[in-house]
Specification:
5-stranded mixed beta sheet; binds acetyl coenzyme *A; alpha+beta; 2 domains; Peroxisomal Thiolase, Chain A, domain 1
C-alpha cells in the first residue's frame, strides 16, 4: 500500500556507506566449475562478476564497515544512534540479531537493535520501518543496513542459481531533515507465492541434521522464470504507486535505484514505467544480486558517482522472496 508523507515531519537519508569483499569471482571462473558460459550469464542477467567472502567471514564483517562509513558521512558517532535495523537473510547466527552484533562493534549503547527479514526487499523495508520510527518522534537517528553473505547458501553445483548472487553490505543513516527527504513509500507482501524462492533448511521446520544436509536443504531454491515475471510487474507497479501518492510524474524522476537482480528485469521495469534506461542506476554487472544489500550499495554508488544530486527526485524499488516488494520516493 502506498503511503504519502506525513506533512508535519520530513525524514531524510543523511549518510551512506558500503562494503564488499575484495575477492572477485568472474563468469570465466564459474565456467570452470559449472556448465555455463560468460556469454550466457551476461546476456541472460547482465552480470560479469560478483564479490564473495573468504571462508570464515560473516555478514556482520561486511555490515560493520559499511555502517561505520555511513555514520561517519552523517557526521555522527555510534553513541548518537538510537535505532539500528539490519536487513538480512543471512544473519551471522539464528540469534542474537546481527543488528546487536553491529551495535557492539559501533559502541552504539543507546540504540534499539533488531534484524528484519524481507529477502531482496530488505533495504527498502528497513528504510520504511525506520521512517515510521522516526516519524513517531521517539527516535531521532537511525542506522539502516542491508547485508548478506549469500554465498554460504548457494549450491555451487547448481548453475541456475550460483551465477546470480554475490556478497556485500550497504548502509544509510536517517534523521529528521528541514527539507526534502522521504515523500512517499509503498510496500506489499504475498505469502501465497512463498515457495517460488526459499531455503528450507536451518529453521524450526527442518533443523540442521545429517539428513537435512544430505537432502541439500540448506541451499537456496528458486523458480527463476516466475520470479522474473512477478518482479517486473511488482517493481513497476510500486514505482507508479509512490509517484501517484506524491503527485509526481515519471519524467520528474532523476534516478531510479532498482534492486539489482538482472539487467533484463531492470530494462523491463524501465519500459513499463516509461523511464529511459539512462535514469536507471545499474551495478548488477559488478556485484550480481546482493539481496538485502543491493539497493543500499546502489544508493551509495549513485551518490558517489554524482548520479544523484541535492534536490533530485529519486526512487528506490525492490522485489524479493516472500514475496515482498516496496518503494521509497525521496528528494535527495
Ligand atoms: N548457464 C547456462 N545455461 C543455463 C544456466 C547457466 N548458468 N542456468 C540455466 N541455464 C539453462 C536452463 O537449464 C535452460 O535450459 P533448458 O531450456 O535446456 O531447460 C535454459 O538455460 C534457459 O533457462 P531459462 O530459465 O528459460 O532462462 P531465463 O532467460 O528465464 O533466465 C534467470 C534465467 C536468469 C534465472 C532468470 O529467470 C532470472 O533472472 N529470474 C529472476 C530470478 C532472480 O533474480 N532471483 C533472485 C531473487 S528475486 C529477485 O531478486 C527479484
Amino acid at each position: 500500500m502506498a503511503r504519502p508523507l506525513a506533512l508535519s515531519k520530513r525524514i531524510g537519508i543523511v549518510g551512506v556507506g558500503m562494503q564488499v569483499p575484495s575477492k572477485v569471482l568472474t563468469n570465466q571462473e564459474l565456467e570452470r566449475t559449472v556448465e555455463t558460459s560468460d556469454e550466457w550469464i551476461r546476456t541472460r542477467t547482465g552480470i560479469r562478476e560478483r564479490r564473495i567472502v573468504e571462508p570464515g567471514m560473516a555478514t556482520s564483517d561486511l555490515a560493520v564497515p559499511a555502517a561505520r562509513q555511513a555514520v561517519k558521512s552523517a557526521g555522527l558517532h555510534g553513541k548518537d544512534l538510537d535505532l539500528i535495523i539490519v536487513a538480512t537473510t543471512s544473519p551471522d547466527m539464528m540469534f542474537p540479531s546481527t543488528a546487536c552484533l553491529v551495535q557492539r562493534e559501533l559502541g552504539a549503547k543507546s540504540a534499539v537493535c533488531f534484524d528484519l527479514s524481507a529477502a531482496c526487499s530488505g533495504s527498502v523495508f528497513a528504510i520504511i520501518t525506520a521512517w515510521h520510527y522516526l516519524l513517531g518522534g521517539q527516535y531521532k537517528r537511525a542506522l539502516v543496513i542491508g547485508a548478506e553473505v549469500l554465498s554460504n547458501y548457494i549450491d555451487w553445483t547448481d548453475r541456475s542459481t550460483c551465477v546470480l548472487f554475490g556478497d556485500g553490505a550497504g548502509a544509510c543513516v536517517m534523521t529528521p531533515v528541514a527539507r526534502g527527504g522521504i515523500l512517499a513509500t509503498d510496500m506489499g507482501s504475498d505469502g501465497t507465492a512463498a515457495d517460488l524462492l526459499y531455503m528450507p533448511g536451518g529453521g524450526s521446520k527442518y533443523p540442521p541434521s545429517h539428513a537435512s544436509v544430505d537432502q541439500r536443504l540448506h541451499f537456496l531454491r528458486m523458480n527463476g522464470g516466475e520470479i522474473f515475471r512477478l518482479a517486473v510487474r511488482g517493481m513497476a507497479d510500486s514505482v507508479q504507486a509512490v509517484l501517484k501518492a506524491a503527485h509526481r510524474k515519471p519524467e520528474q524522476l532523476e534516478c531510479c535505484i532498482p534492486h539489482q537482480a538482472n539487467i533484463r528485469i531492470i530494462e523491463a521495469v524501465a519500459k513499463r514505467t516509461g523511464l529511459p534506461m539512462e535514469r536507471m542506476f545499474v551495478n548488477v554487472d559488478r556485484y550480481g544480486n546482493t539481496s538485502a544489500a543491493s539497493n543500499l550499495i546502489a544508493l551509495y554508488e549513485a551518490a558517489q558517482e554524482g548520479r544523484i544530486q541535492h534536490g533530485d527526485l529519486v526512487v528506490l524499488v525492490a522485489f524479493g522472496a516472500g514475496l515482498t516488494w516496496g518503494s521509497v520516493l525521496l528528494e535527495w
